[in-house]
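Lesson 9: reading folded outputs for more than one chain in a single document. The general rule is that every protein is listed as its sequence immediately followed by its structure tokens, and records are never interleaved. Here is the first one.
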Amino acid sequence: MLDQSNITIDVHLDNQDPKAVRDEIRAGLLSTPRRLPTKYFYDDRGSALFEQICTLPEYYPTRTEHQLLKTVADDVIARTRAEELVELGSGAATKTRVLLDAMARTNRLRSYVPFDFSESIVRRVAHELVEEYEGLRVHGVVGDFLAHLEHIPRGGRRLVVFLGGTIGNLEPAAAATFLSSVADEMDRGDFFLLGVQLITDVDRLEAAYNDSAGLSAAFNKNMLSVLKVVIGAEFDPDHFDHVARFNQDELQIEMHLRSVCRQVIPIPELELTLRLEEGEEILTEISRKFTRHHVEAMLTRAGFTPLGWYTDPAHLHGLALAQKPSG
């Protein structure tokens, strides 16, 4: 029987300043190149599409990280002796269960804190995991991990994880600020596990974001539906193509929405009339790829001490274990 008393859900997205949201989107649409914040992929449909993408043959990052976690989870938990798992950008918590299982095997599993932009997915995961793990307490946080980290509840001996290569969705300066903010919110002696996608051949990288089933295209275009809800923008998804390519200079995949025709799109809530030429693109996501040296340097600058590095045999994905120094 589901123990509702073991579930707490805090929602902080309602606290967003509507003007700040409008200003952020307006500034992105007027920038050069035009861009939109990645977080607007994720309404309920966007989250469901991403879950499907993760199962596709071309999309190797999820299954590679999942298998890597299975290989190293016991070692990670033995080194951290964690009792509480905090996951930033938790999503469906599919890979999370590997770490929760490892914690349960040591009889140390006490609580899990999923932190995600989607309230429905946080609530779903909370109910699933309380049923799966006897006595587990789940304290979900619905928010933007770039703005609401201070709402992570205080806990016991914690392992904070940021998986899926999501750090690669942030520009270098934003990634540095984010990692420093994570360190600031952690207690001394807490541990941090960061998942990163590594540099590999371009064909493999681009195929992962241009799947034959068209789910990546649907996911990209779903942002337009989200923006209709958020700012009332009447984008027509049929007037855009999905484009994803690797930028060799920046070592990142770049995902765009390309206008297939000349468009004039009034957006009264932004006091803006958006004019797009045929072929003009809006950047919707970057996915940076890394080396071990780059990752450990980032963590060190953010105030962490790197402790361990794990990778798969093909060197497609890396997991960096670090700690906030206790002294």
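And here is the second record, again sequence then tokens.
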Amino acid sequence: MELIDITAIWVGLVGLAVIMYVVLDGFDLGVGILYPFMPDERARDDVMRSVAPVWDGNETWLVLGGAGLLAAFPAMYSILLPALYLGVFLLLAGLIFRGVAFEFRFKSRRSRPWWNAAFAGGSIVAAAAQGIVIGAFVQGIEVEGMVYVGGAFDWLTPFTLFTALSLVLGYALLGATWGIMKTEGTTQQWLYRVTPLLVVAVALCLLVVSLWTPLTQPQVMERWLSEWPRLLPLPLLGALALLLLWWAVQERREYLPFFAAIGLFLSAFAGIVASKWPYAIPPHVTFDEAASAPESQLFILLGILFMLPIIIGYTTWTYWVFRGKVRPSTGYS
């Protein structure tokens, strides 16, 4: 019997990369989602400056998660990509549009409205594509003999469209709470007003998804019914995060809303894992079946364990250096 389960370690590492990407890149995608609704160009400048030092570093976690998935679970990679080609393409296209618009917006004057639209559109498309991918994973993928056998548009269902909408609203909530923490004045006051609306919308979406998910697969329904007392803390933590977020916004707290929103995302992520474990491709392929050879996992693991502290270190340092408020004339202070 192995003393160390390398596959379990890799599940943890890929899961860490996914949740770090969702949380960190989620708030700057959320800033872009809110862009068309902001009251004026000064508010857009404020929130853009707030994410300027960190947005590209946040996407490091997407690269790490994708590379880790390919190295440790190649079967999962080879099944998911054919099933979700269009969703992945939309995700990458949205990120590209957003990145280009981010760089050019500050340098333009006459064409700034076009770059604003590109930034908002890229953010919305990237967030919606991620929601579609998550929804397709939750509802299940048709596999026979470790090969995807479904159609090109099997991912396109009412459930995946609703998860796309839910994630767009969730990222908008993260972006709003990030803006509350990083801005001041009229921009911050506008974010305080819009955040309660987003809290209500996200709460409704979470309720619908929570009720809809067990209906997508009999295994999920069976798990929640049989293990309900043990899984009860997960929805309770989500409800607590929502209540804390609502209270913090009403009390005009600056930092607590953002961390409460992160807690909400963590509880939702834990709920998905609890519903689908141990399946890498629900409802057919487990993580053990999708894993590469232990020797390959160990070899790549040594490199990841060397790089991971460096990534965590420079991410932490960046956020520490730019921990202050954004000022209209001087940027961070």
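What the second record shows: The radius of gyration is 20 Å.
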